[in-house]
Amino acid sequence: MHNTFNGKLNDLIQTAQKYLSETYDMEVKLQSNVTLLMIRSFDDIVTTCKEEISDADEKHVAFILKTLCSIDVNNLNKKELFEQVERFLSRYINPVSKNRDDFFAVNEKNIISMINLKQNCIEALKMINSECNYLRNKNLGRMRFAAEIDKYNALAARLENIQNLLEKRIEYDADKILDSIVENFYIIYIFLVALYRYTQYNSAVIDYVIILSLVDRMLYIVDPLLQSRALKSKYLLYYHVVFELKELRLLLLSQL
User: Fold this and answer.
1) How many domains are there within the chain?
2) CA distance 207 to 121
3) Which class for 190: exposed (0-12), middle (13-18), buried (19 or more C-beta within 10 A)?
4) CB-count exposure of residue 215 (10 Å: 0-12, 13-18, 19+)
5) Do residues 253 and 212 make contact, with C-beta atoms less than 8 angstroms apart?
6) What's the Cα-to-Cα distance from 147 to each of 13, 38, 152, 176, rounded to whole Å?
7) Is residue 230 very low, low, confident or very high in pLDDT (cuts 50, 70, 90)?
8) DSSP states of 169-189 as a string?
9) CB distance 211 to 65 below 8 Å
10) Residue pair 124/159 in contact by the 8 Å Cβ criterion
C-alpha cells in the first residue's frame, strides 16, 4: 500500500472522527403535530411580508431594514453592508448550541465541513477500488496480494462506516438548523425580501448576487434533509419554507 495514499486516508478518517461520537444523540425527532392551522399561519406570514414590501418605496424599505434588522443601509458602504447582512443571517439560522465542543456545535461551519468530508470519503472509496483493480492486474504473489487487498478492505470498511455516521450527523444538524429557520422565518423572509426591494432602488450598494448567495446558503444546508426524504415523513410545514426560499431564488435569478 502506498504510504502517501495510506497517510491521506488516515488523515481523512482522523479529521472526520472529530465530528463523530458514539454518545452523540443523532436521532432526528419526528413531529406529528403540524396542523393545518400552523401552515395557514405560515402562509399568512409570507403574504403579510410580501404586502408590506411590494409597494414600499426606498425610504420605507430602508426603515424596515433599520427597525427590524438593525441594518442602516443609508449609512453603510458596500463592504460594511455585506458584513452586517452576513452576521444577521448567521444569527438567525444557527441555533444556540449547548455543546461546548466546537466540533459538535450545530452551525453552518460544521455542517459544510462534514458535507465536504462525506464527499471526500466517497472519492476515497473510489480510489481504493481503483487501487484494488490495479493490484489485480499486477503480477503479485497470492500471499502478498491477499495481504494488500485485506488492508484496503479494512480501510474501505472504516470509510463506509464514517460516511454513514457523517450522513446521520449532517441530517441531524440540518434538521436543527431548519428548526431555527422556521422559528425565525418571519424576520429572515422580510429581511431577504426587503434587501431584494432595496436592491431594485440602489444596486450600487448591494446586488442580487449577494442576496442569492444568502438564499443558497440556507438551501445548501437543508439539502441533506431533502436528499434523505426526511421532510416527507416529518414536517409538512418545512416544505412550505423550502418552497418559499426556492421561489425567492427564482425571482433573484430572473434579475441577473
Assistant:
1) 1
2) 36
3) buried
4) buried
5) yes
6) 21, 60, 9, 44
7) low
8) HHHHHHHHHHHHHHHTHHHHH
9) no
10) yes
